[in-house]
Design a protein that fits this description.
This protein folds into 2 domains: 10-175, no CATH class; 176-238. It is built from 8 helices and no strands. Helix 4 packs antiparallel against helix 5. The N and C termini lie far apart (95 Å). By secondary structure, the chain is mostly helical. The longest helix is centred in the C-terminal third of the chain and has 61 residues, at 177-237.
């Protein structure tokens, strides 16, 4: 059977896993950072007040946060990393990191803005890549960088390492549930077969033990009969 050039590999799995990391816990954590600075109840007022601070937004972004004739009624769950970054940078009053918003932060800079920047950069690396693969080396760099940022943001949010745990879970969580279910089912069948074999062995052991008991009892009966016969025979001869 021919192998497709689009078949899954370790490197395609790396790319998918990195996307899950960024679109899952990282996005949710940035939502919590925004919620920390701008409670939902105040968002419509803040966004109108600071509208002039915002750069040019896409039409979907504008319609989401400043709908005509209405106010934003979501819970930040409909905002992606791109929009969250714009809002965190422009309406929350978060000081820029040492190299400034929009630039790579220094590795030693652990400020809030630096960690937000790291997540944005990692997201762009994955989303804007022209290839659906991610080498092990690049994957490990991205994962390590993002995990460190998540740990720092957890500390800022004082949430008990909530998102760090999710990141660590995703690092080794299955990427093929159907295949894993197949293996789990096979293991279950093997376990059942093992249990059946153990039960058969125990039954055979009990049967052998009973057979040995019966043999001993029969032997004792025969010995008793022989003894009685010899006794009677002796008395007759006397």
């Amino acid at each position: 059977m021919a192998t497709s050039s689009y078949a899954s590999t370790e490197e395609t799995t790396n790319a998918c896993r990195a996307c899950r990391l960024l679109l899952g816990p990282c996005t949710d954590e940035l939502r919590d950072v925004l919620l920390h600075h701008v409670p939902l109840s105040t968002f419509p007022h803040v966004i109108k007040q600071k509208r002039s601070n915002l750069p040019r937004l896409t039409a979907p972004q504008m319609n989401l946060i400043l709908p005509r004739g209405s106010s934003y009624t979501g819970n930040y769950g409909d905002m992606d990393i791109s929009l969250l970054y714009i809002l965190l940078r422009n309406i929350c009053g978060i000081p820029p990191h040492s190299n400034g918003w929009g630039y790579d932060p220094d590795p030693t800079d652990r400020s809030l803005s630096a960690n937000i920047e790291r997540i944005r950069i990692a997201r762009n690396q994955c989303v804007h890549s022209s290839s659906p693969v991610l080498s092990n080396a690049d994957f490990n760099i991205i994962w390590s960088t993002v995990r460190s940022a998540v740990v720092d943001l957890d500390s800022f949010l004082n949430n008990g390492n909530k998102f760090e745990r999710e990141v660590d879970f995703l690092r080794h969580e299955t990427m093929d549930l159907v295949r894993d279910r197949h293996y789990i089912e096979e293991l279950r069948k093997q376990a059942e077969e093992d249990a059946l074999i153990r039960e058969m062995v125990q039954a055979l052991k009990r049967k052998l033990e009973q057979t040995e008991t019966d043999r001993i009892e029969n032997h004792n009966r025969i010995q008793k009969i022989v003894g009685e016969y010899n006794y009677i025979k002796k008395r007759i001869q006397e």
